[in-house]
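Researcher: I'm comparing several assemblies side by side, and this is the next one on my list. It has 824 residues spread over two chains. Same procedure as the others: predict the full complex and return the structure.
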Amino acid sequence: MNVEPKRLDFCPMDTPNSPAPAEPGHSPTPATPIVVEAHQLSSGYGRSPVCGIVDFTLSGGGALALVGPNGAGKSTVLKTVVGQLEPVSGSARIHGQEVDDRSLAFRREVAQVFDEDAFFPSLTVAEHLAIVAAGHGATEVEELIDTECEFFGLSAERSSLPHNLSSGQRRRLLLAAAFVRPRSLLVLDEPEQRLDTAMRSRLATRLRGEVAGGLALLLVTHDPAFVRTIATSALFIGDDIRHLTPAAAAAAISETNPHAG
Amino acid sequence: MRDRAAMNRNSGAEPDGALSARDIRRYTFKASLARTEGGLMDIVSEVYTYVLGALVLIAMSGALVAGLRAQLGIAAIAAAQAGPALLAPESAAAALLLALAAVLLSTELALGPVSMTLPQMSWWLPLPVRRHGFIAPGFYRSLLWPAAAAAAVMLPLSLGLGGSPDPGRAALATVCAVSVSMLLYSLAGWAQATGRGGWLRPAASLVAAAAPLLVMGAALYNSAGGAADLGWLLWLPTGWPLLVAEGNLWPLLLVAAAGAALAWVHARLEQISTASLRAGAMVAGHVGGSILTMDTGELARALGPARESKGSRWITVPMFFRHGPAGGSVRGSLAARARRTLLATHAVLALRQPGRLLRALVLATLPGTLAATLPAVAGASGEPGAATAVLATALLFCAHAAVVSFGSTARFAAGNPSVDALLPLSERSVRRIHWLVPAAGMVLWMGIAFTLLDLLDTGSPALTLLALLAGPGLGAATVRAAFRPAPDWTMPAVATAAGPVPVGAARSFFVGPDLTVITLLPVLLCLLSGGVPWQAYLIQLGLSLLAVLWGTRLRRRVRSTAQ
């Protein structure tokens, strides 16, 4: 017996506070609200910070790239901003609310992709995506899945189980899950990891379009091309913390890793 | 993040028309079930396996009851012949319940107690639907094992302790014990839901370690003519089930308290943070892997403190050199200094893990504690019987657990061979130096364990001397276990309780424990027989020497034929 995602009773979700999903190519609204606000934020484990204190704001239509060497604490900052870790000190707010991944509003607005290979072993690619789309109240689930599977090169693997996917395909599935749902903030931890060059390029172009359409994007990356293509601002996290232009951040990555990009 | 709860309440409404957690759970379950191979017969087979498992457990509990009653019968005879027992059985049982309750609480806190699987957390929890429906099933399931553990301990205990066992009282005592376990679960649930109570886990670990030491201290005091009474342990809530077994009914108030506490936790499942659920899932995975690989060291690490103590960072390798390797006069040849460095590394790592040393010490006292709590063993002065067999078995398990505790540095070296390769020493020399500290540790361990048994009239100086001779062999078992070859996962699988495991993998798990058993054979046989003939020393010496040669030998490398 094959369980098709369409057997779920999909209903429209009432999300009065969330902006409509951004369409690529749209211009950002003139007065873009602040989506993420990190104030004197110190990130770490327990009471031990792993990097310096960061201060930044990110508005809709903006893409902030966190760059720096391995082990500098970029992913830790990212996890603190989305509430996976408690701040050592300072605060992070999303849409003006203190970060709490238990709140419905937070989960409606924030899509996040970290490097986690955790899948239901008996669910197919399409069924994983169906859970996310339907759980967010999407009405055209099949169409959404078709679109994202095509974009991420998973059309032939729609009915494949996770253990039959390659490492890169599993990464694509995680990324696709972030796109089958509405979002006003997208948080990506090294999205370029395990992707081939063509997929990286397509993803960068897509993200640039979504940011132009009003999405707030917060990402950690080691790919200078990603920074150049997508970022509107950058924060270097290393021996010191400093705000950089995307061009300077891309140059800093190239210095740290001459083989990058 | 003080206003997290308030924010959560404000946004607690589910979007109109969106799927509920129940819908999503059912969809996931149905989709998985539809793809499960085998069908109805597999389900029947699973049910059959579980029923059979339950019957085996019940039979084992029955056998335990019979064994306990038999021992208490022996105790009555022994007490008549050899004077009063060192501790009252009820007090000893109360100490046992206190230690088990502390272990249970510590384990609950490590596991969550409420947890979900990693896929559930990755794919369900980020959805904008009420999380209660996702978390509650894990909550209900996680109630089962502490309840079952409490019943499995209390039922035989209450049937075994009474002069004439009353099934009704035993059932009520078991209900009371299950209530205690539920209260402990709720305490852990409170800590998880509120993010408070960080002190609970170290406190529980401390109580778990202190309870056997308390029993040992009281027994030693009584054996020296004192009259220490641990009867007050019965008045702690963990001892109340024993009071119910004696006929008191007021401790059953715990049933209502446990119900209220569980209801409190159930109402706050939504408040449990994703980070806490994730941490519990990671620990559960670690525990599962440790059980599958039968690695008690990993199991202890999984359930132990989240982070190693930082307080001992001041202990460094140069401390073990009179002038420090980098400054002042450097004495000895290059090889001698390398040997000293490796020995100092072992000493530093051992001292930086005081928890492991304390665990080894507690393990050394457990056989003595058992001897003190089984009057038949303590009072019969070497009289052979089932109780001595229980003591011998416990000694074997404790010795193996201590062997694992002393093996962490050797295990690190086995996992990072490049560190050893940097030393200007032959591989054989390095392996033997890895043996020295665990061997010294196990000599000390055996000395403590058997001196305590001697003081409690269960052992003898001759047996202690024999045990000391076994110490070097047990050190070799540590090295053998640490440097065991990687499991061969390519061989055909055999069915085990933990699922199919390749034969090659299962065989690898016995590398190390095998040497523990072989080395301890003379000691265990002498303990069981109640005497130490002079030939035993020769045999023990020979076995220890063989164990050292066997445990520290280098395995032949299989040459690649691919070239």
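Model: For your comparison table: Residues 311-555 of chain B form one domain.
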